[in-house]
Every structure is written in C-alpha cells, then in structure tokens.
Amino acid sequence: MSNKKKSGKGNGDFLKGFEPSSEVKRYLPGSDIPESAYSTNKVKPVFCFEYLAMNATGFCFNNKEVDQSLYHKVLDRLKVMSQKTYEDLKKGNNFFRFHSVDLDSKDVSLNKLDFKKTLTIVPDSLEDKDLPTLYQFDAGHEEARIAGFLGYYGIFYLVWLDKNHKLYPRK
Fold it and tell me: What are the sequence ranges of the domains in the chain?
C-alpha cells in the first residue's frame, strides 16, 4: 500500500491509500489492516478520547473559557452524530459542518507540528506524510467546533475543542 493519503473528499473512503507510520499504528487494532477498515461511508462514528488535548491552552477541552453549557452541547452533538453514518455527516454539511482542515493553509491557526505533538511525545518521529487528515465539525454551541481525525473502522479521535471557531475560521 502506498503512503499517499486522500484528502477525505469524494467517495467517502477517507483513509483508502493511507498507511500510517509505526508510531501512529500503535493505537490501531493489529498490523494487518483489512481493506474494509478504510471505508467509512456506511459506518457510524465511534468517538475516542485517547488524543484529547487537555493542557489548558486555547483549543483544549479543559480551557478556562469552556463552561458546563458547552460541555452539554458537545455531548448532545456527539450523541446525534453517533447515530449518523459518515456519509450522512458529509451530506448534512450545513448542520454538522463536517469537513477536512488543511494544516498547510495560512488561514489555519494550528500547524502540522502542533498536530504531531498531540499524537506522539516525539513529534520528529512522525513524518508529515503520515499524519492523518484533520477534520472539524460543529460542536452544537454558537461558533464552537471540534477537531480530530479518523482512524480505522470509523473511529473518530477527538483532539481539540475550538470554542470561538478560531482554528479554521470562516472566510
């Protein structure tokens, strides 16, 4: 399998062609990944908190600006999204605003190194080409967004909570 990853646009096979490095593979079930693990169109998301940012900075889930009301909205949104397929999430773009984030864009306030630091304690061990595609979606509360990435079998790893939509602001 090649190391080239797809952007997540198109047919919904977000991870087809993406082969993560051994560092990223540590959280995946087994080394022999069946082809079906890459297809997410008909799969409902399962949310994982393993890479949740909790260092009290601006995009973290324990940011001082995040209040109980926002946490309730986030949980409500995760519950609703877990009942939809990824195909539904993409089609319901106006409601969920589920889309990829281009970390190379000058409009994005985080970069690939920030993402690597979330995935591993040795960010230099992870090459840019091995980074999973970052996605964001509406957190169900005013401008708030949640950012994370897709793993195999439709697992969505939550990473950042962007209370004020500053990670990837609207144009």
Answer: 22-162
